[in-house]
Design a protein that fits this description.
- By secondary structure, the chain is an alpha/beta fold.
- It folds into two domains: about 110 residues, Urease, subunit C, domain 1, CATH 2.30.40; about 290 residues, TIM Barrel, CATH 3.20.20.140.
- The protein is built from 15 helices and 16 strands.
- The strands form two sheets. Strands 1, 2, 3, 4, 5, 14, 15 and 16 form an eight-stranded mixed β-sheet that branches. Strands 6-7-8-9-10-11-12-13 form an eight-stranded parallel β-sheet.
- N-(iminomethyl)-L-glutamic acid binds next to α3.
- The site of fe (iii) ion has 5 residues, from loops.
């Protein structure tokens, strides 16, 4: 099956296959082709270039994209899409003055979601989660990482990871799974922290490895959650089972989680709302991708990741949603890109790089996703007619997507 798309106003994020991520000043550069064509062959990008070189042969289908822009689909490298129910009541409690921390200390927060999840069957959890996955695909996401972490029991964690695996089998979008058993201490283990770590390390991890249920291991390294030493214990165990770390750090406090993520060669360190100069320094010349989650900052009214300082220090930066019921009930990467521009003062070019090629890096998907490159997946956003790509962050509340292709096929909008 071949599809020719012609008269594309601008084709964004055109890269050679050897570019895996962009850092520092390179983030301001977004290579594009104006007045372009693109050929999809089956599931892949087969060819593209300026319209003057459009191939003179027949195609199964031709699409006229006059006035429209094409970019690679968003790569959302940090989500918790699989969850049960919602936390709308906590949202209202926060409006009425309680803090995220106070809610968690009362047994709400992650433990509230865990209770709901453990009372939900695997089929019901799948049905609730697939609605959210379909929604983010319609919003232009073509690759996503999904974490466990609302089970906090052997059965609950495995249930979540099996749901993620089933979603990956049923949907064409690329899905990576992360084991986040170390998301919070269940009440039963409040006084027996090593007991909970032993459950994660000796009971749950071997089963995950046996069923091949995850590629990454995550820990919520934060005051009141997991200490740096506990984080290292989990990362070490995960690595023994073949899982690379991708960790939650520096959301509320800088306690050394970044340095320890780097020590264990974490693929990414995520959140980073609170960053010291030492934290920024530590990330220089490492393989670890810093990931910012601006919709979480927006929803919780907490600081935004200091993108300008990090980019000025020569670092790369990726953007992701953090879609979850407590701190970010939104999986809209278009909003993430707009918020990064509006609140973090990233330029449109920087934000698009962060949400595509650098997001792909943070999921080990650089070979197949994140740019317009021959041989990569034909995962494309075709916009409505736009004056320029600046409109994507500028018109932050509008739906600018005409259609989304995943593996070469238009997904139902
Ligand atoms: O990434 N910070 C830790 N975990 C999630 C939120 C969890 C929740 O409140 O349910 C996050 O923001
Ligand atoms: Fe998260």
């Amino acid at each position: 099956m071949t599809t020719l798309i012609i008269n594309i106003k601008e084709l964004l994020q055109v890269r050679e296959s050897n570019i895996l991520k962009v850092s520092g000043p390179e983030m301001a550069l977004l290579p594009t082709i104006k007045n372009a064509y693109l050929v999809i062959k089956d599931t892949l990008i087969a060819e593209f270039g300026p319209m003057k070189n459009v191939p003179q042969k027949t195609f199964d289908k031709t699409i006229d994209a006059t006035g429209k822009i094409i970019l690679p689909t968003w790569c959302d490298s940090h989500t918790h899409i699989v969850y049960a129910g919602n936390r709308e009541q906590e949202f209202v409690d926060r409006i009425n003055g309680l803090s995220y921390e106070e809610i968690a200390n009362r047994g709400g927060g992650i433990l509230n979601s865990a209770q709901k999840l453990n009372q939900t069957t695997e089929d019901e959890l799948y049905d609730q989660s697939k609605e959210r996955l379909e929604e983010v695909m319609r919003l232009g996401t073509g690759a996503v990482e999904i974490k466990s972490g609302y089970g906090l029991t052997l059965d609950g964690e495995l249930k979540m990871l099996r749901v993620i695996k089933k979603l990956a089998q049923q949907y064409p979008i690329a899905i990576k799974a992360t084991f986040l058993g170390a998301h919070a201490f269940p009440l039963a283990y409040k006084e027996n922290r090593q007991g909970y770590l032993a459950l994660l390390i000796h009971d749950i991890l071997p089963q995950i490895a046996k069923e091949d249920l995850a590629q990454y291991v995550d820990v919520f390294c934060e005051t009141g959650y997991f200490t740096v030493a506990e984080t290292e214990q989990i990362m070490e165990a995960g690595i023994r089972f073949g899982l690379k770390p991708k960790i939650h750090v520096n959301q509320f406090n800088s306690i050394g989680g970044i340095q320890s993520g780097i020590k264990y060669d974490a693929l990414s360190v995520d959140h980073l709302e609170v960053m010291t100069t030492e934290d920024i320094e530590a990330l220089k010349n490492t393989n670890t991708m810093p990931v910012a989650l601006p919709s979480c900052s927006y929803f919780l009214s907490i600081p935004y990741t200091p993108a300008r300082q990090m980019i000025a220090a020569g670092l790369p930066l990726a953007l992701a949603t953090d879609f979850n019921p407590g701190s970010t009930p939104s999986g809209n990467m278009n909003f993430v890109v707009a918020t990064a521009c509006i609140k973090m003062k990233m330029t449109p070019e920087e934000a698009i790089n962060a949400a595509t090629i650098n997001g792909a890096y943070a999921m080990n998907l650089s070979d197949s996703h994140g740019s317009i490159t021959i041989g990569k997946k034909a995962n494309l956003i075709l916009t409505k007619p736009l004056s320029s790509y600046y409109q994507i962050p500028y018109a932050f509340g509008s739906n600018l997507i005409d259609c989304v292709f995943i593996e070469g096929k238009k997904i139902p909008i």
